[in-house]
Write a structure and sequence with these properties.
Order of helices and strands: HHHHHEHEHEHHEEHEEHEEE
Number of helices: 11
Distance between the termini: 50 Å
Radius of gyration: 20 Å
Helix content: 40-55%
Oligomer: single chain
Structural class: alpha/beta
Bound molecules: S-adenosylmethionine
Strand order of the largest sheet: 6-2-1-7-8-10-9
CATH superfamily of the largest domain: Vaccinia Virus protein VP39
CATH architecture of the largest domain: 3-Layer(aba) Sandwich
Length: 278
């Protein structure tokens, strides 16, 4: 693995932060080497300084995109942590269904959900499966289910809806895999009925969120952990602006809104927590 010098690391720390909001420090040399090192060969750079110069001078942004793909942690799996999906099933969705039906019983009911850092799409397809199971008259509903991520490669895999055996077996039982996926060679492809429910796009949660509708439910899980306190504040403020009044926010198990925003009310249900926009 190609070694990064302290001087080169000093250049990459603010650069990665500028591109993604991800906070690195001098102790992360190994992480930078293991993630960006392979790019040196792919992009024919002799060292990290050259990679930086190439990225800054590349008008096509192709190098910058490769750096973002390589440096982001895309760890995810179907039904990750289980409790958020139970919360959705047993509290947030039933409350939403009651609210919508009481407000305008004659109209076509609507539901909009956004996975704000969806990585390779497992979170979004898990939600789609929950909706299929929980809403018996789903064909009557107007459902918007979107996922966004800063990594092009992650969004591309999410859009394809193709997963390896290891990926589908992480979080799903065989019956579920059979119900919602078709095996194609050594890959499992999300069935069209599920794929048709979801849309993916590229987006940076720390830049103005353009062209998105307001959502009833937003999941922003396991992304704020990589950001500074200042950027977490920016992200949650943008997310609050993107929620409908009373909308629900779900964050990661190791994340908290404490000291970052006062726009949400914490709600506890059984042993889980979500946040309602005030
Ligand atoms: C660990 S994954 C979490 C995926 C999923 N939400 C979950 O909990 O399983 C974090 C994702 O955040 C994305 N990410 C990092 N910085 C981002 C930013 N500034 N804007 C949008 N997405 C970002 C990464 O590309 C990565 O896919």
């Amino acid at each position: 693995m190609r070694k990064i010098t302290p001087g080169e690391l000093k250049i990459f720390i603010p650069y990665v932060n500028l591109l993604t909001g991800i906070v690195l420090d001098q102790s992360k040399a190994y992480l930078v080497e293991s993630r960006l090192g392979p790019l040196l060969d792919t992009l024919q750079c002799e060292n990290y300084s050259q990679l930086y110069t190439k990225a800054r001078s590349d008008a096509s942004k192709r190098v910058e995109k490769s750096i973002i793909d390589a440096i982001t942690t895309n760890e995810t799996y179907f039904f990750r942590d289980k409790t958020p999906f139970d919360l959705l099933k047993f509290k947030i969705l039933p409350d939403h269904i009651d609210k919508v039906k009481a407000a305008s019983p004659a109209l076509r009911p609507t539901l909009s959900i956004w996975s704000a850092a969806c990585s390779t799409g497992q979170e979004v397809y898990s939600i789609a499966m929950v909706l299929k199971e929980m809403i018996p008259d789903i064909s009557r509903w107007q459902i918007t289910l979107m996922g966004a991520d800063i990594s092009d490669a992650a969004v591309q895999q999410a859009s394809m809806g193709r997963y390896s055996k290891v990926e589908v077996e992480r979080g799903m039982a065989p019956a579920q895999i059979q119900k919602y996926f078709n095996q194609e060679g050594n890959q499992w492809k999300v069935k069209d009925e599920l794929r048709a429910m979801v849309q993916f796009s590229k987006g940076n949660l720390l830049q103005p969120l353009m062209g998105l509708p307001k959502f009833d439910i937003i999941l922003a899980r396991n992304v704020a952990i990589y950001f500074s306190m200042e950027n977490r504040k920016i992200m949650y403020s943008q997310i609050a602006n993107q929620l409908k009044p009373g909308g629900a926010l779900m964050i990661g198990a190791s994340e908290s809104l404490m000291g970052l925003t006062d726009r949400f009310e914490q709600k506890n249900y059984m042993s889980s927590t979500f946040y309602a926009l005030k």
